[in-house]
Amino acid sequence: MDTKPKFSENLFWDIDLKNLDYEVHFPYILSRVLDYGTWQDWLEIRKFYSKEKIKNTALQLRELSAKSLNFIAIFTNTPIQEFRCYKLRQSKPTHWNS
User: Fold this and answer.
1) What is the CB neighbour count within 10 angstroms for residue 22?
2) What are the helix (H) ranges across 1-98?
3) For residues 6 and 55, what is the distance between their CA atoms, to the nearest angstrom?
4) Of 51, 56, 31, which Cα lies nearest the Cα of 41?
5) What domain range includes position 71?
6) Arithmetic mean of pLDDT over the chain
7) pTM for this structure?
8) Rounded to whole angstroms, how far apart are CA atoms 78 and 59?
9) Is residue 34 included in any domain, yes or no?
10) What is the number of structural domains in the chain?
């Protein structure tokens, strides 16, 4: 069995993968996969991490795109209002057409 996930090469364009700890940096990895990953990247996340770990980590993420937030809310069967990124977004009102 593989000891670490195999993600798309372009997913972590801004870091040196040799320095990536797959447990310590899991919040960073999860947010990258949700916002920029392919379906194969998502399958790698599911293969290496439990649904409970994914849910607990996602609930604490500070930022996610609206599409990613909706996806993870459905996947974890969790109301969108429970996610930290949703609460933070609501506390920063934007102009009506932005």
Assistant:
1) 12
2) 26-36, 39-48, 51-60, 66-76, 84-90
3) 21
4) 31
5) 21-90
6) 90
7) 0.86
8) 9
9) yes
10) 1
In a domain, 61, yes or no: yes
For 16: left if phi > 0, alpha if psi spans -120 to 50, otherwise beta; the answer is beta
Other CB atoms within 10 A of residue 31 CB: 21
Q: Which two tokens stand for residue 26?
A: 């899991």
Among candidate residues 87, 80, 20, 78, the one with its CA nearest the CA of residue 51: 78
Is residue 42 one of the residues assigned to a domain? Answer: yes
Q: Specify the pLDDT at position 4.
A: 84
Question: Alpha-carbon distance 39 to 88, whole Å?
Answer: 27
Instruction: Report d(CA 67, CA 7) in Å as an integer.
Output: 20
